[in-house]
Amino acid sequence: AVNYYRELYGYPRSVGHYMMRLLPEDKQAVESEPDETRRLTMIQRRETRRTFEEIFKKIKSYTHRLMEMVKTADTAKVRSLPANSQKSLNDALVSSQILIQECAETLQDIQFWKHRYP
Fold it and tell me: For residue 55, what are the domain limits?
């Protein structure tokens, strides 16, 4: 993936090459642009936005699953753990909640970016 973006931004191929990777609705939007430079800029934006959106959705989903696992821990077993382990579980819950909130805010920012720069 890193090499793809290095190529896309550093030494891009023809627009047609990147059009094959786009979703149908993205292809239509890119084809509506009048020149190759604007098409390439639109492809860069859409590809970058798509990648970040996928990454943050996955992080949010995995963190939510982790938080649910920690919440379902047997209370009796948790109480039998040393104090520092109990503290670690509580910290994991708080950190998970913060991370989920941050991911949700970032996804909102991506949606704003999507509407501002189609």
Answer: 2-116
